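Instructor's aside before we start: the two examples that follow are unrelated to each other. I chose them only because their records fit on one page, so don't look for a connection. First example below.
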Amino acid sequence: MKSLKRRGLTVTTVLTTAAFVAGAFGATSASASTQSTATKASTLACAGGDYVKAHESVKIRKSKKVNSTALGLLPEGKKAKLLKCSVDLAGTYSLCGWDDDNRWHHISYRGIKGYVPLACVV
């Protein structure tokens, strides 16, 4: 766990990515198992307040769409508190090196509550 934190990763990010990769490669039974494990782990990890870190500056949006109102900016390298322990699926975006992704995190940064694309944070 400590080695993940040193790399700027959280259990939530690692397990969510594992579930996504398993699903992308058609691992049906492993995928369901991994997703269940990811959900349980993310709930446990977030219970005490989990954080994400921006790997590039990203706008905090009012809703889960790239064309929704920008409420503020999460600067590169800064951490934001996760308000929800799960990933929301909503508006598709092509940002931060990802194309046609639709995963969003609900965060709080310096009193601003809103949504950021999962692809832009770790």
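Example two begins here.
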Amino acid sequence: MTEEFVLDLDEGVPPMPRPAEPSRSLEQLEGRWPDPPEDSTSLVRAIHALRRRPIGDLRPDELARLITQDVGLPRLLPLAVRVLRDTAPRQPAGGWYDDDLLYAVVTRKPQVWEQLPGLAEELRAVIESLVGLSRYVRDEADAFLSSLPEDHDDATDR
């Protein structure tokens, strides 16, 4: 089994890998947020609640919800890419594939991926193995791929 790492994305500081801790919550790993105001939207309340759950227990739809809000990216993107990688081989045969999670991951800002080049390359390989994506997800996946440096090992066309 390969060891997983998450990266700090602090400005100006080189990323330092640390082992992921799936039994701990984002709140435990990154610190507690103040409680949301009483009149908060359901999205805000849901994000706060999800931050209290162990990251290893989060479902793909919950990962997508957190990632689209740019919450916990250094810890959640490696987990999300692993979910996408593990489900990709079943996708061409009609197996389940989470377009919402893929969309959430590929639509993160290029600056995030510049700090996570190995993870970006792993995601590139996943995307290049997928067929029959909906147009809106394919467009975003293509935009992600075009934002990556061209110096990867895979010289084959899609």
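The longest strand covers residues 5-7.
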